[in-house]
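Team,

Forwarding the record for the chain on the shared tracking sheet. I've put the sequence and predicted structure together so nobody has to dig through attachments.
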Amino acid sequence: MRFMLQKLRQHAPLLSLALLLAALWEIGPPLAGIPHYIIPRLSDVLVSLWEDRQPLLRHFGVTLWEALLGLGISTVFGLSFAIVIDRSRLAERTLYPLLVASQTIPIVALSPIMVMWFGYELGSKVAVVILFTFFPIAVNTASGFRGADPDTGDLLRTMGASQRQLFVKWKLPSAMPGFFTGLKLAAAISVGGATLGEWLGGQAGLGMYTKRASHMLAGDAVFAGVLLLSIMGIGLFLTIQCIERLLLAHRRS
């Protein structure tokens, strides 16, 4: 009971702000004379969530699968890329600048190309998610490798550590905080990548649901889909955060 009270006091400011925003959302649009198809009341959005719960749940699952699949592929390739540029000075001087330069190209402009290459099926949605999520994972992990304490590396070398042991016992643990920082950021924005892919072409997913609802000027349905997308992004972020705390608990002890 005491633990629950402590948590409640700790999150009281956040809860108070959330309640205030919810109240403003409920009473603000009618008072301001904003049409319901522009900004519906919160209660209308919640009613839409309940009434359309079955199709929304189906579309939620589609978007979540696209985001998770793209995020998983980005994690593998982002970690691999960071390892390559850490082990090879040539790769660091050539591939890393190209990666940074690639981010000057708007991802929204590349998204239609992904549709041209992979069609309107799952592949194009996953490709767009990868475009969104690969960079933060690769860059933050590479920064973690570069930030490894050189004295620790020198000590392990004097003790006869092999290259594999140096990587497992020195480089990889040093890179984990940066890796999880990039992964949390990627998890949050993966939802946006999946949604954009669905907007460009698809038959299912919350992005397609909100697009169709907007064409019918169903503001409550649009906001219901957006609310679920936000919940999905927050959930993915918190999931990665929990995994980070479990795996890196020794760093806080």
